[in-house]
């Protein structure tokens, strides 16, 4: 679920997210041709605008503990999200897109509110530096002006979007930093087949004394059935994970059936604090962030102002 959230988070922020919420690109992206042939506006820093300082007459789509989310920001993010799909993609319905964008903006505001409560606010100088970094990332001021034109941004709205994204990213980093570098983990190997008969034959061979690894290589010649080290919550199927963590080292499981097929596990090692792989740590960070967002949303006062 969180992978979907992160994917949407990056897509909706677009180029803005490259310097704030997502990993930067190795090379600047190629910018599309401007839709209209006008003189690009010259960007000049403007005073900081925060959601709580917004004039009351500006239309809002929602309030999160009193902090307003602008209708203009919602419409801009919705347009960017729609444009992110290729013709060959399975495109969500309009209602699903609206829900996704609104949820994204609400969760972003939850992070921003928490950042403020924890004493973090982005200064004008720091925001100016981020805007300059963004300009450098995509090829200079002219490229930035063109991007703003194509994405319906003014210098003021871009500044506001960057401000929100930076504060949300700060709070996100505080949450995921709490995930340790080590965790209880198991290292296992599996015999896997999509056919029940093969699994039964493999089980009989094991009972007859055939080496587990030899059979595993027969059924998985590309990897020998090696699952590597994994923490709780990392595997796709919880029934496999439950067996792996409940068996002693050196033990072999019974046949485990999943949606994919049939599995027999062999437990190679089990440690209470084994270093996490990058993939495993990112997974745990994603879970920690999603759990935080779920709790924050339950406790927040959220008012939706659009149908």
Q: What does this 3D model show about the protein?
A:
- The chain has 307 residues and is an alpha+beta fold.
- The chain folds into two domains: 2-178 and 286-304, Triger factor/SurA peptide-binding fold, CATH 1.10.4030; 183-274, Chitinase A, domain 3.
- 49% of the residues lie in helices and 15% in strands.
- It has eleven helices and seven strands.
- The strands form two sheets. Strands 4-3-6-5 form a four-stranded antiparallel sheet. Strands 2-1-7 form a three-stranded antiparallel sheet.
- Helix 1 (2-13) crosses helix 3 (71-83) and helix 3 crosses helix 4.
- Residues 1-49 have low confidence and may be disordered.
Write the layout of secondary structure elements.
Blueprint: H1 2-13, H2 15-18, E1 60-64, E2 67-70, H3 71-83, H4 94-117, H5 124-138, H6 141-150, H7 155-176, E3 182-193, H8 196-207, H9 212-219, E4 226-231, H10 238-246, E5 256-257, E6 262-275, H11 278-299, E7 302-304
Antiparallel strand pairs: 1-2, 1-7, 3-4, 3-6, 5-6
Helix content: 40-55%
Query: Could you give the order of strands across the largest sheet?
Result: 4-3-6-5
How big a fraction of the residues is strand? 5-15%
CATH topology of the largest domain: Triger factor/SurA peptide-binding fold
Calculate the mean pLDDT score and round it.
85
- Principal-axis shape: elongated
Count of helical regions: 11
Name of the top-level CATH class of the largest domain: Mainly Alpha
């Amino acid at each position: 679920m969180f992978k979907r959230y992160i994917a949407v988070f990056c897509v909706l922020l677009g180029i803005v997210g490259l310097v704030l919420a997502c990993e930067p690109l190795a090379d600047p992206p190629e910018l599309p041709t401007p839709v209209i042939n006008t003189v690009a506006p010259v960007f000049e820093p403007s005073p900081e605008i925060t959601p709580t300082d917004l004039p009351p007459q500006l239309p809002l789509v929602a309030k999160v503990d009193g902090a307003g989310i602008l209708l203009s920001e919602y419409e801009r993010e919705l347009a960017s999200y729609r444009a992110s799909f290729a013709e060959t993609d399975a495109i969500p319905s309009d209602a699903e897109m609206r829900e996704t964008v609104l949820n994204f903006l609400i969760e972003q505001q939850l992070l921003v509110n928490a950042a403020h409560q924890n004493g973090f606010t982005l200064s004008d100088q720091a925001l100016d530096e981020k805007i300059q970094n963004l300009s450098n990332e995509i090829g200079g001021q002219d490229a930035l002006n063109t991007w703003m034109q194509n994405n319906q941004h003014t210098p003021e709205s871009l500044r506001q979007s960057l401000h929100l994204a930076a504060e949300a990213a700060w709070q996100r980093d505080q949450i995921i930093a709490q995930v340790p570098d080590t965790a209880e983990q198991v290292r296992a190997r599996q015999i896997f087949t999509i056919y029940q008969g093969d699994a039964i034959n493999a089980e009989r061979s094991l009972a007859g004394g055939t080496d587990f690894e030899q059979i595993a290589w027969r059924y998985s010649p590309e990897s020998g059935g090696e699952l590597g080290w994994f923490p709780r919550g990392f595997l796709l199927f919880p029934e496999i994970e439950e067996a792996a963590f409940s068996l002693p080292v050196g033990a072999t499981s019974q046949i485990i059936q999943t949606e994919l097929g049939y599995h027999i596990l062999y437990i190679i090692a089990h440690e209470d604090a084994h270093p996490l792989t990058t993939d495993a740590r990112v997974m745990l960070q994603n879970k920690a962030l999603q759990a935080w967002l779920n709790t924050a949303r339950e406790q927040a006062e959220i008012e939706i102002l659009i149908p």
